[in-house]
Write a structure and sequence with these properties.
Strand content: under 5%
Number of domains: 2
Radius of gyration: 26 Å
Largest sheet: none
CATH class of the largest domain: Mainly Alpha
Low-confidence stretches: 21-47
Helix content: 55-70%
Number of helices: 6
Mean pLDDT: 81
Distance between the termini: 80 Å
Structural class: mainly alpha
CATH architecture of the largest domain: Orthogonal Bundle
């Protein structure tokens, strides 16, 4: 009885192993074909354009509640400190100073974007990625990872903007 059970187990194991080998080869061929097509498309789209995160556009104010913003020449240190606190609590999950992370690095942002655009992106990221061409392009550059709406007030967003002014 025991030897029959052992032989039966051995036969079943050999059958399972011999059947599984053919299926793996078919799956490998399919996987190789799928990998080639997207890679070609990505290379073509990157080689034609400058990265949206490196694009300089100091005329676009974006789409959202902020249409005009007056900024003094000097940084308001108290506001910048408040902005750093808000940034540290709400933004560091996706943004890192000095390097690309899930989202773009905030330093130097005001050399590439208008203050209104930055505030509109903070206050209404969904609207911006739907209606603003640059925000749409950034969404694609960062692998379709949308910016989360942190529901900041205009005062908090303004403080974050002031903090960004201190970053070089």
């Amino acid at each position: 009885m025991k030897s029959t059970l052992k032989i039966l187990t051995l036969v079943i194991t050999l059958l399972a192993l011999s059947c599984g080998g053919g299926e793996e080869k078919k799956e490998e061929k399919t996987k190789v074909q799928l990998k080639r097509q997207p890679t070609t498309k990505k290379v073509e789209s990157k080689s034609n354009d400058t990265k949206p995160s490196e694009t300089i556009d100091l005329t676009n104010k974006g789409v959202g509640p902020i249409t005009s913003l007056d900024i003094t020449a000097d940084v308001d240190q108290a506001m910048a400190t408040k902005g750093k606190d808000v940034y540290d609590k709400m933004c560091t999950a996706c943004h890192r100073i000095g390097k690309k992370f899930i989202g773009p690095a905030p330093n130097g942002i005001l050399e590439r974007r208008t203050p209104e655009w930055v505030m509109n992106m903070i206050l209404d990221p969904e609207g911006m990625t739907q209606k603003d061409p640059l925000a749409k392009a950034l969404l694609m550059e960062f692998n379709g990872s949308p910016m989360a709406n942190q529901n900041l007030t205009e005062d908090e967003a303004r403080a974050v903007l002031e903090y960004f002014r201190t970053l070089k």
